[in-house]
Amino acid sequence: MKQHLLVAVSGIALLAASGPAFAGVVYSSNFSTLTAPGFTVTGAQGNPNSAGVITAPNGLSFIGILTQGADAQLNLTGLAPHSNVTVSYDLYALRSLDGDTGGYGPDAFTFKVDGTTVTNYTFGFPGNTQSYPVAGSPGDAGAVAIDPNAFGYGGYFDGAVTYSFTQQLVDSAAGLTLDFIGNSNQAWNDEGFGINNVVVTTDAISAVPLPGALPMFAAALLGIGSLAARGRRRRATA
Predict the structure, then answer these.
(1) How confident is the model at residue 37, as a pLDDT?
(2) 31 — phi, psi (to 5°)?
(3) Is it the case that residue 81 has pLDDT exceeding 60?
(4) What CATH architecture is 22-205?
């Protein structure tokens, strides 16, 4: 009897552990399928496809190349009630970006949320200064990877430098518009930006109990009740 009772109680414990459930990821793409669902890309250079995705000579696919004001805009709708949003992405700084340097620069990448600028950093190769991660930083500061061959495009100044960003936003709207804008001032074969591995999560919480939990909970209670009644009958006949 104790063994059966333990099984029934364990069923209730599993129900309790299953809720609340977090919505988690609401968008995720590495653009390897050569599509960019939810994105509208305008002004990208380097012969990207109609979705705004470009495939480098080494086979890597990403949104780009973003330069001279090119914009990759992601529109999300129908978000469950939430209070915070986290946006993470990889930024590729390509070739001869000049950072803060006048004349050929400044070369900046801008991230906007619902039309409001959240970050606007300059990026440059060594010998220049850039504003990422802080003003006056040396070129390539904060990078997580450097490919001198620029994903197969060929060595030219700094190649391809990868930065990893996580932006945490206080937001509760059902819709969200994110803009990733390359504000470098020369054409793509000289400099530009790309984005990849875009992930958006929220802190939305589903209702408790979860779908299907009530029938399981009721069955567990019935099981305990049946076992208890059976125990009382055995004591009565003893």
Answers:
(1) 96
(2) 60, 20
(3) yes
(4) Sandwich (2.60)
Comparing C-alpha atoms, which of 209, 71, 83, 94 is closest to residue 147?
A: 94
Q: 192 near 46, Cβ under 8 Å?
A: yes
Q: Answer yes or no: are the C-beta atoms of 26 and 56 closer than 8 Å.
A: no
What is the DSSP track for the chain? -HHHHHHHHHHHHHHHHT-S-EEEEEEEE--TTS--TTEEEES--S---TTSEEE-TTS-EEEEEE-TTEEEEEEE--PPS-SEEEEEEEEEEEES-BTT-TTT---EEEEEETTEEEEEEE-B-BTBEE-SSSTTEETTTT-SEEETTGGGT---TT-EEEEEEEEEEE---S-EEEEEEEE-SS-TTTEEEEEEEEEEEEEEE--SSPTTHHHHHHHHHHHHHHHHHHHHHHHHH-
Specify the pLDDT at position 52: 98
Q: How does pLDDT run across 1-47, given as a tens digit for each residue?
A: 333 333 322 232 322 333 333 459 999 999 999 999 999 999 999 99
Nearest C-alpha neighbor of 95 from the set 189, 197, 218, 17:
189
pLDDT of residue 10: 29
CA distances from 134 to 100, 131, 138, 167 (A): 12, 5, 10, 16
